[in-house]
Structure formats: C-alpha cells, structure tokens
Design brief:
Layout (H helix, E strand, L loop, with lengths): L11 E2 L3 H4 L13 E2 L9 H4 L3 E5 L13 H10 L11 E7 L5 H17 L3 E5 L6 H10 L4 E6 L17 H7 L5 E7 L8 H9 L3 E3 L1
Parallel strand pairs: 2-4, 3-4, 3-5, 6-7, 7-8
Antiparallel strand pairs: 1-4
Helix pairs in contact: 4-5
C-alpha cells in the first residue's frame, strides 16, 4: 500500500463528543474500545493486534443531505452502551471517514484502508452510508488479490447490465463487470418479487446466486 498507517489519520474525523461524553459502566463497550477522540490517539491498528476495527462513513448518493458523521455516530450511541461479554476481543474505532470528492474516490480510499486492516489480522466493520459503499469492501479484497463473498440484505437487487457507473442501483453490476473478476459468490436475503423485474430474477438464477425472499 502507498499510504503509511499514520497518514490515514488525516482522512478521519474523531468520534463525536456526545458519544464520548457518556458515563459508561466499566462493563460496557464504551469503556473498552480504543477510539479516536482527536487527541493524538488514532489507533495503531498494525502494531496493536486488534480483532475488530470500526470505521464510519455516512456517504449516501441517494441522500445528498446525509452527514458522514451523523449516521455512524447514531449507531455508536447505542453500540457503546452494550455490555461486553466474557470474551477477549480487542476493538478499535477509527472515527468517521471524511473524503467525499466522489463516490469512486471514497470507495477506493476506504478499500485501501480496509485492506490494510485485513493485512493486520483484524476484521474491518464499516458503519453507515448507502449501498454503494459495499463496493469499498469488495475493493479491499481485490487489492489483496482475494476472492470475496457478498451477502446483501435488501428488497431490491442492485444490478444494471447497461451501466458501468458506480451507483446505489448498480453495485453488483460493477463487481461483476471488473477484470479480474473476484466475486466468488453472491447471496441476497429479503428480496421482494414485486420490486424486481422477472428477467432479472431469472438472470440471477442463471448465475447460480442464492436468492431468499
């Protein structure tokens, strides 16, 4: 990867003050996470041995008023309050990814950092944003030369044969249209028949994709 880990800090906004201002019980996740507060404490993922790394991004092409911070911080508001079980899992929270010049650039940059997280042995967990951000997770696998499986919970199948642009409606189309093609399998959970053209459902069956209403 071209970027050193320390350079990624410039791409993130800290976890919001209201989330960090809570008085968490010693057994709640808010008291166990290593989070980015903006005080020179950006988590050193490659050197610390985290198991799970959270990163937020509220980018949503279908909602231009969406905030890169508001949606992921709303999830954190509840997640940080959950009680940690009796297991040894180290979790880091990098804060909110802030680059928004274009969806292509956002997904590429997110893919690069998630690839570095995977190389460190941790699992990246992306919070917030539209369905187009699924492409950033796929990009992290292609950067590492690994095949990916995609499980999508959605009433609509995001596939357009005639469009090469990355849009919320064509995330899967972009994955399948790339060379080399690194999508090993796709599964949709919760599709609704009346939201999808019959010919598209037939095409997915030809691909041997798993569709479960």
């Amino acid at each position: 990867m071209k970027n050193s880990w320390q350079e990624w800090e410039e791409c993130f906004q800290p976890v919001s003050g209201p989330v960090l201002a809570e008085d968490y019980n010693a057994a709640q996740w808010g008291a166990h996470l290593k989070y980015f507060s903006g005080n020179n404490d950006f988590p050193d993922v490659p050197g610390t041995g985290f198991d799970i790394v959270l990163l937020g991004c509220g980018y949503d092409m279908e909602d231009l008023s969406a905030s890169c911070n508001q949606t992921p911080d709303s999830v954190r508001h509840w997640f940080y309050r959950l009680y940690k079980g009796d297991y040894a899992v180290r979790v880091a929270d990098l804060g909110n990814f802030s680059l928004r010049r274009s969806v292509e650039e956002t997904c590429l940059q997110l893919g690069r950092i998630m690839a570095e997280i995977q190389e460190s042995g941790a699992v990246p967990l992306l919070i917030g944003g539209g369905s187009e951000l699924n492409f950033s997770m796929y990009r992290s696998f292609t950067l590492l030369g690994r095949y990916a499986n995609l499980l999508e919970v959605s009433p609509v199948l995001h596939f357009k044969e005639v469009s090469e642009a990355l849009t919320p409606e064509n995330v899967l189309g972009r994955m399948l249209g790339e060379e080399p093609q690194m999508l090993f399998h796709y599964c949709n959970l919760g599709y609704q028949t009346y939201f999808n053209p019959p010919e598209l459902l037939g095409l997915f069956k030809q691909f041997h994709f798993d569709l479960m209403r």
